Every structure is written in C-alpha cells, then in structure tokens.
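Exercise 7.
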Amino acid sequence: MAEVRSLARPYAHALFALAEQQGRVDIYGEILANLDAIMANTVARYLAGAQKKQRLTLLAVIRDTLPDLPVEMSRLLDAMSDNKRLILLPIVHDLYGQYRRAHVGTTNIMVTCAYTPSEEIKAEIERRLQQRVKGQLRITYDCEPVLMGGFLVRIGDQVLDLSVREQMRRIGRELQR
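Solution. The predicted structure, written as tokens, is:
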C-alpha cells in the first residue's frame, strides 16, 4: 500500500500546491471527492486500469459528469491517464485531504494499541505526539490484540510501529542472520 501511495503523492502534492496558489483549496477538494465517488464504481475502476481507449472513455464520462471541471484538473486527469494512474484517484483524494488538514493545522492520527489505553496513557501519547507534530491533533484509538503490547501510530501515510509484535519480528530476523 505504501508503494501505491508513493505513486499518488506527486499528483496530490502538485494539485494541492496549485490549489493553494490559486486560492481554490476547497474547490479542488470537492472535485476530488466527486472523482473519488466516480472511482468507487466497479466499472470506472476497470476502465481506469484498462487500455488507452477505455481510459479515454472514462475521461469522457468524468467530463460529462463534471462539466465545470477546471482546465488544471482536466490536465491532471489527462496526465494520470497517460501514465495509467487514474486508478490512484481515491488515494490522491486522501493525500490531498491530509495536505488540506495540515494546511489548516489539524493532523489526523490513528493509534492502534494491543488493549484499550487508560486516560493517563492517552494523555502521555498525546503529549509526546504534540512534541513531534505541529498544530492541532485529532487522535483516534483502535485495539488490535495481535500487537501483543505497545502500539502502532499512523500519521497520514507514515507508520511508527512500536508494538511487541514488531520487536519480536526484529529479534527473529536478527537471530536468523
């Protein structure tokens, strides 16, 4: 998944930079949400990954569905189609949303623990994350007993694995050497 996000990142970053420059951050965000909705359709996903003729059909459907598509967005879609990357539109939308939240100063963070953390532990996690991440944090918690202990922190597309499971994997790899 990280590799796919790496392919989508330049598109999201370039679009966000352009949107910010033009003062159209919200407008482009709404357009990407519409494109994401279109790509939720199984046929659209199939066309996005198919041959050039089918990708052009998908672009025609998108342009018919969104007739007021700005020229810049149209060019982005053309570039993504030429590079066989239209299938990445939902990920571009997600990354764009992360850039947008960071722009307004809010960062979404998912903390996955082996057990439900106490309020005391949550406060400590929040304090430490606040030292690393600037702006306002929106932290959500999830439980996955397979972690055995510790926790996993997801900040956007970055993952910090501080779980006992990962520590045991590292030890296993070291012992195999």
